[in-house]
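Quick one, tokens below. Sequence please?
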């Protein structure tokens, strides 16, 4: 059932926003497409200085987390501030609930296979990113994205039972089948922070697990109008995240 019906800045959205602010929420954000604009080269992504300042102010008064598909080491220098927690690799790299060694080792066979296939993948514009806890095959820069995705499908073939794949914006991700996801991460962060609820903002397929599993007293926001999303409300674009942060700063008191 489609639950993505209303803009956050509609009367219904503002009522939900007011309610979450009274519930002592953890604030959790995806990175790419949420805090940082999607760029052609992932290594060029950064948060704007203005947005970083607002996030730093929020992190000083509220439990705040970044929950991203990037590795922790990759995303930290791109933030411009220090959040309470950073969870990377789509939830698999979590300082609170570390993934098992089996989860990481399950990627080793595929890692070797992709290393052998790298020339063929590069020829169609696919770049392999090894993030230890996950593998990402990017095809945003491919001249023919359909051909690039077909080559990825051919090289991945039938995945080992210990692995699972999922898509994203011009990327195919592979993680251990039992690796924690973003929803697992946000639940663990809420518990660790001692919060009553969570506000989570994301924009991509790997954020949908949070939208789907979030209790009714959480507030989930999708950046961009995606009719099939299970987020409760949406923001029209990444630029509206700044407005959201301003409202949070205006309404959330410092924690005692």
């Amino acid at each position: 059932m489609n639950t993505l019906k209303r803009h956050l800045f509609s009367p219904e959205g503002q009522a939900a926003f007011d309610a979450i602010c009274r519930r002592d929420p953890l604030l959790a954000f995806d990175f790419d497409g949420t805090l940082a604009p999607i760029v052609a080269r992932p290594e060029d992504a950064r948060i704007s200085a203005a947005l970083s300042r607002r996030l730093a102010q929020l992190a000083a008064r509220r439990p705040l987390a970044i929950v991203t598909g990037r590795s922790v080491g990759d995303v930290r220098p791109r933030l411009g501030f220090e959040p309470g927690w950073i969870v990377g690799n789509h939830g698999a790299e979590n300082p609170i609930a570390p993934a098992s060694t089996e989860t990481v080792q399950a990627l080793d066979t595929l890692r070797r296979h992709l290393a052998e296939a790298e020339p063929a993948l590069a020829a169609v514009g696919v770049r392999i990113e090894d993030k230890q806890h996950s593998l990402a095959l990017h095809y945003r820069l491919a001249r023919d994205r359909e051909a690039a995705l077909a080559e990825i499908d051919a090289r991945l073939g039938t995945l080992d039972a210990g692995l699972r794949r999922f898509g994203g914006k011009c990327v195919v991700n592979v993680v251990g089948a039992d690796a924690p996801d973003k929803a697992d991460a946000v639940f663990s962060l809420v518990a660790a922070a001692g919060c009553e609820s969570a506000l989570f903002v994301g924009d991509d397929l790997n954020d949908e697990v949070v939208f789907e599993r979030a209790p009714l007293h959480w507030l989930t926001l999708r950046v961009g109008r995606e009719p099939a999303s299970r987020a409760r409300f949406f923001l029209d674009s990444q630029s509206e995240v700044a407005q959201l942060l301003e409202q949070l700063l205006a309404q959330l008191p410092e924690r005692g």
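The chain has a mean pLDDT of 92. The longest strand covers residues 163-168.
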